[in-house]
Every structure is written in structure tokens, then in C-alpha cells.
Amino acid sequence: MDNTEITIKLTSDEALVLSDWLERVQMTDLSRLVDDPAAWAPIHKIAGTLDKALPGIFAADYAERLDAARQRLREATGSFTEGHNG
Q1: Element (H or E) spanning 15, and its range?
Q2: Nearest CA to 26 among 42, 14, 12?
Q3: Which helix (H) or strand (E) holds 79?
Q4: What is the dihedral of CA 56, 61, 64, 67, to 10 degrees?
Q5: What percent of the chain shows pLDDT beyond 90?
Q6: pLDDT at 25
Q7: In the prediction, which pLDDT does 82 show?
Q8: Per-residue pLDDT averaged across 18-44, rounded?
Q9: Single pTM value for the model
């Protein structure tokens, strides 16, 4: 198997929102959703990489930053998210 690394590029808003979501996933019992233990390895790797890249997650105004990023992403995605819960 080829072990070529894959690079994923995210905007700072995408990274912030994904980081928050991954943190909540990891803190919740989602064994019924993540049914393959092998899936946790990349989940933890992505979450750790985001944590290191986002010093703002420790800022006093983190909640406000996160809300603003969520709102910008909702506006940017527009019709893509219509009809979906989230």
C-alpha cells in the first residue's frame, strides 16, 4: 500500500468549526457512528493538527469567534445546507 500523504486545505473558519465539531465528537460516545476503531486514528490526527494550528481556540473570546465563523460558513454555503440539520 502506498503511504503517500494527503494534504487538505481549509480556511481558518472551516478549521475552527471543524476543530470544535471534532472535539465534541471525541467527547461523546459515538461508538455506534464510528464503528471501526481504525477510524479514530485519522480523527485524532486531524483534531491534533487543528489544535496546533489554531491558537485562537484558547482565546477568551473563543465562543464569539466560533459563532462568527459558523455564521460566515452558513452564509457561504447557502443552498448547500438547506434541508439539512446542522
Answers
A1: helix 12-26
A2: 42
A3: none
A4: 30
A5: 53
A6: 82
A7: 55
A8: 84
A9: 0.78
